[in-house]
Amino acid sequence: MDPGSGRDRDRAAHRRDLWTHSDLDDPADQARVESAASRTSGSRTRRGRHRRLARERLAADKKIARRRGAWICFQDESGVSQLPVVRATWAPKGLTPVLHHRFSFQAHVHGRSAGVSARSQPERVRVLHDRRRLRHRQAHRVPHRTTHPLRREQVILIWDGLMAHRSKAMTAWLATQRDWLHVERLPAYAPELNPIEQVWGNMKSTELANLCPDILDEVRIATETGLTRIGSNYDLCHSFLDHTGLSL
User: Fold this and answer.
1) Phi and psi for 165 in degrees, rounded to 5?
2) CA neighbours closer than 13 Å in the CB half-sphere of residue 96
């Protein structure tokens, strides 16, 4: 308790009566609980110092592409479902927008593969995609499906370290395609180096934004519409490449 009021009452005389931080036990120690603060991540969960595909390595790949007249193709897989992609939208003042959708999308998730392919010529930028459903055991067919419109031209394929990309079936298939296909892997935890991430983000903020479909075909149509829109916009495709900090 504080001392009573009065002229001769000096709080300094009672300063030592108050508990200090050192006098108190940590309740966490008594309850045997751990701090909610995260610990320093281990080396395996962080991007390695020596990235396999740094910008210097890509520069070497660009020289190879020019020498061979090859396409540089970035590839990534993504899925769509009946669950809406929630984005900011307009609504009458005082009314909160409400999305009515079928909460259960079961297992009907279409895996899609897309690629941004480019040559050194400014006008040669294309967005390629495989509209068929992707199954894990068929993953080794994805590069052929995605690059099929290139009609067996020389291709340098750049993708991430997805487990399916490193499977035995994929390795065996790639070994039979060395006459036209050269593969490079993106460094771990570096999605910012893959322009396809921007393709998915742009589409999910436009055609798929707040879409509440009754059937999966509505999502498929919206997805193909978005990929067609992006593929027909040269400046937009190049902006995805610019976002990665890479250049042709």
Assistant:
1) -75, -15
2) 3
Per-residue pLDDT tens over the stretch 7-62: 555 555 555 554 554 555 555 555 554 555 555 555 555 554 444 445 555 555 66
3-state helix, strand, coil in the chain (%, to 5): 40, 15, 45
Q: Which residue has the higher pLDDT, 214 or 131?
A: 214
Q: Report the range of poorest mean pLDDT among 12-16, 205-209, 239-243.
A: 12-16
Coil, strand, or helix at residue 245? Answer: coil
Task: Output the CATH code of domain 53-77+105-243.
Answer: 3.30.420.10
**71-126 residue pLDDT tens:** 888 888 888 888 889 999 998 999 999 998 877 554 344 445 556 665 555 556 67
Find residue 10's DSSP bridge partners. none
- Please state the pTM of the whole predicted model: 0.66
- From CA 98, how far away is CA 92, in angstroms rounded? 12
CA 16 – CA 5 distance, rounded (Å):
19
Rounded to whole angstroms, what are the CA distances from 133 to 111, 145, 233?
Answer: 6, 11, 25
Amino acid (1-letter code) at residue 196: I
Of 73, 75, 197, nearest to 124 by C-alpha is: 73
Main-chain phi, psi angles of 48, to 5 degrees:
-65, 155
Cα separation of 2 and 123, whole Å?
A: 81
Domain limits, the chain = 53-77+105-243
Q: Which residues contact 81 (CB under 8 A, 6 or more apart)?
A: 105, 108, 109, 216, 219
